[in-house]
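The material for today's practical consists of a large collection of protein records. There is nothing in a record beyond a sequence line and a structure line. Backbone structure tokens are a discrete shorthand for how the chain folds in space. Nothing more is needed to start thinking about how sequence determines fold. As an example, a complete record with its sequence and its structure tokens follows.
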Amino acid sequence: MFSTGPSNSPGQQPRPRAGKAAATVALAVTAVYAGTIPTAQAAPHGGTSQCGGRGVDTTALIRYESDIVIKAPLGTVWKLQTDVERWPSWQPPVTTAERLDPGRLKAGSRFRWTTPAPATPTTPATTLAITSTVQELQRHNCILWSGPAIGEGLRIDEGVHLWTFSKVKGGVHVHTEETWTGTQVEADVPTATAALGAGLEAWLHDLNTTAEA
């Protein structure tokens, strides 16, 4: 997810791989976004995090992952994350969110949400409409969804987003990772990775702030 807001939060532990080259590009993206995007780096490939035996696209060129410990009950964190229609109430980057089917969120559920995408050196500022389908869901444990993101002048053919939740001393350990595929974003992998990383860090920041409140 893209973000134009702050995203630094205590306890977050991004896992870099891209090294000096990606860090340089990430800093360039930071400047383009007027200093609002953190230095994002690619996550290591070949991770083992899964939900119901499924995970992100391990062949994707664009990938980012991060972790945080939230000092709140697991039920609180889970409800915030899975009550999709209320995302705009605590995530400023999510401008709209709607369920496309009734009932409790489960495997096969679909939802559509929108988020602004700031301009990059290769793509214009736009609003992305994302149609997500839940692929796997284990209550209070994990959720995996995927789908395309489409805006004027920008398209992500498929984003695959995994979240896992586990009780730890003092709160809940939250792990998230996401991959993007598509010709347009793959034309500039470091910039796309920086944008993806900024969005995930902002999401974790907002989830942490809201749950702990």
Observations:
- Residues 4-46 have pLDDT under 50 and may be disordered.
